Amino acid sequence: MMELTRKSDYAIRGIVYLAGKPVDKVYLLSDIAAAVDVPPTFLAKIFQQFSKMGLVKSFRGTGGGFMLGRLPETITLLEVVEAVEGPIIPNRCVATPSDCDRSGICTVHPVWIRVQEEVRRVLAGVTLKDLATKE
Amino acid sequence: MMELTRKSDYAIRGIVYLAGKPVDKVYLLSDIAAAVDVPPTFLAKIFQQFSKMGLVKSFRGTGGGFMLGRLPETITLLEVVEAVEGPIIPNRCVATPSDCDRSGICTVHPVWIRVQEEVRRVLAGVTLKDLATKE
DNA sequence: CCTAATAAGATATAAATTGTCTTTTTAGGG
DNA sequence: CCCTAAAAAGACAATTTATATCTTATTAGG
Q1: pTM exceeding the 0.90 threshold for the entire prediction
Q2: Among the ranges given (A33-42, B63-72, B86-95), the one the predictor scored with the smallest mean pLDDT
Q3: What is the fold, at CATH topology level, of the domain defined by B6-134?
């Protein structure tokens, strides 16, 4: 339970790297991937998702690359994780409570809700600015 | 991220069922599995694990079956989940910090520690007695 | 129009999940 | 003693998810 996927880990590395750089410049995917030690083709997929959601902006063609879509202090770790993995759901019954309807009431359900809340609270309390390491 | 496996869900159903019954009696695996709607062979594997860890006691042969290994108020949900899935590890770097040693210090690491602590805290605060629904 | 770069989609491989099946061991009862 | 009822243990199988890679298309600049 609870294990982050590689994809999310890679995603965080990549976007935190951007957050630690001057935000108005464009960075090559290949350079980012090399800097954070992630397979470039995999990071490309991740950043494509991010781009659709506005977390990063992409520019094609010569001189293209990626930059952060918003200021680092306005992007939370929760947003990043959920952008990659979808909503944080400790158990399927949290997403679709009808799954829980064995025997009328499920006593465990409220516990998963609390787990979800606590995890979201922690992740929502950290921004990319907090995570970015300026060099 | 964070999704409980079926195995854990089944495990919880099974052991909570036991916790809701008179604790000094023995229950057939096949009956438990039918009552909580879990494949019997799968639940068997889970209860074998539980048995090794003392969460349940097993009895073989005629008249055999399973009962809780300890009183319901002394078994936490955390124990049950970790008995099935192993320790709660939001990211591999929490288990093996050496993984985290890209670029000296990893700023995200402490966040995963906090996530781990919060999840454990919630789950440790709930016992099987709390979850058991007496009929 | 040529080149540099991302976008999109198809495909491939490996690992984990979710089981099942068979054989063995243990225990009780006639 | 057998015979039967039950769990224990281990091997095996199917499905799904994770982890990529490859190819082709699109976009932009010079």
Answers
A1: yes
A2: B86-95
A3: Arc Repressor Mutant, subunit A (1.10.10)
